[in-house]
TrEMBL record:
PANTHER family xrefs: POLYKETIDE CYCLASE/DEHYDRASE AND LIPID TRANSPORT SUPERFAMILY PROTEIN (PTHR33824), POLYKETIDE CYCLASE_DEHYDRASE AND LIPID TRANSPORT SUPERFAMILY PROTEIN (PTHR33824:SF7)
Transmembrane domains' residue ranges: none
Pfam short name (any one): Polyketide_cyc
Protein name: Coenzyme Q-binding protein COQ10 START domain-containing protein
Residue ranges of domain Coenzyme Q-binding protein COQ10 START in the record: 76-151
InterPro entries: COQ10_START (IPR005031), ORF3 (IPR047137), START-like_dom_sf (IPR023393)
Amino acid sequence: MCSSAISFISSPQSLSLTHVFPTKTNPIFNCRVPPLKPPSFIRIPYGSFKKPSFFTSSKPFSPLMKWQDCTVKMEIDVPASVAYQLYSDREAIPNWMPFVSSVKVLEDKPDLSRWFVKYKAFGRNIEYSWLAKNMEPIPNQKIHWRSLEGLGNS
Protein backbone atom coordinates (compact mmCIF):
# COMPACT_ATOMS: atom_id res chain seq x y z
CA MET A 1 0.00 0.00 0.00
CA CYS A 2 1.35 3.40 -0.89
CA SER A 3 2.05 5.52 2.17
CA SER A 4 1.94 8.77 0.23
CA ALA A 5 -1.58 7.95 -0.96
CA ILE A 6 -2.72 7.26 2.58
CA SER A 7 -1.27 10.50 3.91
CA PHE A 8 -2.82 12.39 0.99
CA ILE A 9 -6.24 10.89 1.58
CA SER A 10 -6.19 11.58 5.29
CA SER A 11 -4.80 15.10 5.09
CA PRO A 12 -6.95 17.84 6.61
CA GLN A 13 -6.86 19.75 3.29
CA SER A 14 -8.80 17.01 1.49
CA LEU A 15 -12.37 17.69 2.56
CA SER A 16 -13.80 15.55 -0.22
CA LEU A 17 -12.51 12.22 -1.47
CA THR A 18 -14.09 12.57 -4.91
CA HIS A 19 -10.66 13.10 -6.48
CA VAL A 20 -9.56 9.68 -5.16
CA PHE A 21 -12.78 7.67 -5.22
CA PRO A 22 -14.77 9.02 -8.17
CA THR A 23 -18.52 8.98 -7.82
CA LYS A 24 -21.19 8.37 -10.43
CA THR A 25 -24.36 10.37 -10.83
CA ASN A 26 -27.46 8.21 -10.84
CA PRO A 27 -29.86 9.78 -13.38
CA ILE A 28 -32.93 8.14 -11.84
CA PHE A 29 -32.49 9.55 -8.34
CA ASN A 30 -30.11 12.37 -9.31
CA CYS A 31 -27.79 11.52 -6.45
CA ARG A 32 -24.14 10.60 -6.24
CA VAL A 33 -23.33 6.99 -5.41
CA PRO A 34 -19.87 5.52 -4.96
CA PRO A 35 -18.65 2.97 -7.49
CA LEU A 36 -19.06 -0.68 -6.62
CA LYS A 37 -15.35 -1.26 -6.15
CA PRO A 38 -12.93 1.54 -5.20
CA PRO A 39 -9.62 1.57 -7.08
CA SER A 40 -6.76 -0.42 -5.58
CA PHE A 41 -3.68 1.35 -4.31
CA ILE A 42 -0.71 -0.35 -5.89
CA ARG A 43 2.88 0.74 -6.29
CA ILE A 44 3.28 2.34 -9.69
CA PRO A 45 6.75 3.44 -10.83
CA TYR A 46 7.30 7.15 -10.39
CA GLY A 47 6.42 9.17 -13.49
CA SER A 48 4.90 6.27 -15.44
CA PHE A 49 1.56 7.98 -16.14
CA LYS A 50 1.08 9.99 -19.34
CA LYS A 51 -1.62 12.18 -17.81
CA PRO A 52 -1.42 13.94 -14.41
CA SER A 53 -2.27 11.87 -11.38
CA PHE A 54 -1.97 12.28 -7.65
CA PHE A 55 0.58 9.41 -7.76
CA THR A 56 3.00 11.47 -9.89
CA SER A 57 2.63 14.59 -7.78
CA SER A 58 4.07 12.88 -4.71
CA LYS A 59 7.44 11.35 -3.93
CA PRO A 60 8.03 7.74 -4.98
CA PHE A 61 6.99 5.09 -2.49
CA SER A 62 9.87 3.64 -0.50
CA PRO A 63 9.37 0.30 1.29
CA LEU A 64 12.01 1.21 3.89
CA MET A 65 10.69 0.82 7.43
CA LYS A 66 12.00 3.06 10.17
CA TRP A 67 12.18 2.16 13.84
CA GLN A 68 9.61 4.02 15.88
CA ASP A 69 10.69 5.14 19.33
CA CYS A 70 8.02 4.78 21.95
CA THR A 71 7.87 4.85 25.71
CA VAL A 72 5.33 3.18 27.92
CA LYS A 73 4.88 3.91 31.59
CA MET A 74 2.70 1.78 33.80
CA GLU A 75 2.32 1.99 37.54
CA ILE A 76 1.62 -1.30 39.29
CA ASP A 77 0.69 -1.57 42.94
CA VAL A 78 3.34 -4.08 44.06
CA PRO A 79 6.36 -3.70 46.32
CA ALA A 80 9.54 -2.65 44.48
CA SER A 81 11.23 -5.84 45.67
CA VAL A 82 8.63 -8.01 43.85
CA ALA A 83 8.98 -6.07 40.58
CA TYR A 84 12.78 -6.11 40.89
CA GLN A 85 12.76 -9.88 41.44
CA LEU A 86 10.58 -10.43 38.34
CA TYR A 87 12.89 -8.40 36.12
CA SER A 88 16.02 -9.95 37.64
CA ASP A 89 15.02 -13.44 36.50
CA ARG A 90 15.62 -12.72 32.81
CA GLU A 91 14.81 -16.22 31.57
CA ALA A 92 11.34 -16.01 33.19
CA ILE A 93 10.46 -12.68 31.53
CA PRO A 94 8.55 -14.37 28.64
CA ASN A 95 6.12 -15.77 31.26
CA TRP A 96 4.74 -12.28 31.91
CA MET A 97 5.87 -10.28 28.85
CA PRO A 98 3.98 -11.88 25.94
CA PHE A 99 5.85 -10.24 23.05
CA VAL A 100 9.20 -11.70 24.22
CA SER A 101 9.38 -15.33 23.13
CA SER A 102 12.54 -16.27 25.06
CA VAL A 103 15.57 -14.95 26.92
CA LYS A 104 18.69 -17.09 27.21
CA VAL A 105 21.47 -16.16 29.63
CA LEU A 106 24.89 -17.11 28.25
CA GLU A 107 26.43 -19.82 30.42
CA ASP A 108 30.02 -18.59 30.13
CA LYS A 109 29.05 -14.91 30.62
CA PRO A 110 26.03 -14.55 32.95
CA ASP A 111 25.93 -10.76 32.46
CA LEU A 112 25.04 -11.33 28.77
CA SER A 113 21.66 -12.52 27.51
CA ARG A 114 20.17 -13.24 24.08
CA TRP A 115 16.59 -11.97 23.69
CA PHE A 116 14.13 -13.30 21.08
CA VAL A 117 10.90 -11.75 19.84
CA LYS A 118 8.46 -13.53 17.53
CA TYR A 119 5.29 -11.98 16.19
CA LYS A 120 3.04 -12.04 13.16
CA ALA A 121 2.62 -8.95 11.00
CA PHE A 122 1.26 -8.51 7.49
CA GLY A 123 0.65 -12.25 7.27
CA ARG A 124 4.28 -13.11 7.95
CA ASN A 125 6.06 -14.59 10.94
CA ILE A 126 8.79 -12.20 12.04
CA GLU A 127 11.61 -13.16 14.37
CA TYR A 128 14.12 -10.77 15.89
CA SER A 129 16.89 -11.20 18.44
CA TRP A 130 19.54 -9.12 20.16
CA LEU A 131 22.37 -9.53 22.63
CA ALA A 132 22.16 -7.46 25.81
CA LYS A 133 24.66 -6.78 28.57
CA ASN A 134 23.33 -6.18 32.06
CA MET A 135 24.79 -3.09 33.68
CA GLU A 136 25.43 -2.80 37.42
CA PRO A 137 22.00 -2.90 39.13
CA ILE A 138 20.87 -0.96 42.17
CA PRO A 139 18.97 -3.60 44.22
CA ASN A 140 15.21 -2.96 44.44
CA GLN A 141 15.61 0.31 42.51
CA LYS A 142 17.15 0.00 39.06
CA ILE A 143 17.79 -2.66 36.42
CA HIS A 144 19.37 -1.54 33.18
CA TRP A 145 21.16 -3.03 30.21
CA ARG A 146 22.83 -2.08 26.94
CA SER A 147 22.27 -3.78 23.61
CA LEU A 148 25.51 -5.04 22.10
CA GLU A 149 24.17 -6.30 18.77
CA GLY A 150 20.90 -6.61 16.90
CA LEU A 151 18.89 -3.84 18.53
CA GLY A 152 20.29 -0.43 19.23
CA ASN A 153 19.28 1.52 22.28
CA SER A 154 20.15 4.95 23.52
